[in-house]
Amino acid sequence: MDVQALIQAIRLDPLWVAVPALLVALVALLLVVRTGTRQRALEARLAELRHDQRGLDTAILALHGAIKAVAEDVIDQGQHQSSVRRALDRLADQQSELRLRAVDEGLYVQAIELIRLGRGRGEVRKLCGLTQAEVDLLFSLHGASVAREHSSVSR
């Protein structure tokens, strides 16, 4: 085959070249339009997601503030509870002291009353659970007045 015959064989009708080129161009145009549409949809979805993210960020900040306020309230409540507990402990200690004083004072009052009734030292010591020194002190303080009262009554 010579060159001229080969060129004649390769030469095509322009219509046969134009139709496939037009089809390729249409497919390319269709792909471009479809890609553009899809890109716009994705951009809209991205904008929507960014808007949602801003809303979530705001909600997270509000939640963080609320948690911080609750934590401060819990700390305040804990401090208040501790102060109340300390006050209750102080009151319990004071009440115990008062009870002890009342018992001690009650014993002394009872002992003074027994002395005024003319009871002896041993009996006062035994009934009130006092030491001999305490009984002696009470008799020295109140025994003389009782003796004076008895002597004035008997006259």
Q: Can you tell me about this structure?
A:
- The chain crosses the membrane at residues 15-33.
- Keywords: Membrane, Transmembrane, Transmembrane helix.
- The protein is an all-alpha fold and 155 residues long.
- 92% of the residues lie in helices and 0% in strands.
- It is built from four helices and no strands.
- The chain has helices at residues 3-10, 14-116, 121-128, 132-154.
- Helix 2 runs antiparallel to helix 3 (121-128) and helix 2 crosses helix 4.
- The radius of gyration is 56 Å and the shape is rod-shaped.
- The mean pLDDT is 88.
Give the gist of this structure.
This protein has helices spanning 3-10, 14-116, 121-128, 132-154. By secondary structure, it is mainly α. It is rod-shaped.
- Secondary structure class reads mainly alpha
Range of helix content:
over 70%
Strand residues, percent? under 5%
Instruction: Give the radius of gyration.
Output: 56 Å
Q: Provide mean pLDDT, rounded.
A: 88
Low-confidence runs: none
Shape: rod-shaped
- Sequence of secondary-structure elements: HHHH
| H/I helix tally | 4
From the N-terminal CA to the C-terminal CA, the straight-line distance is 177 Å
**Major sheet: size, sense and barrel closure?**
none
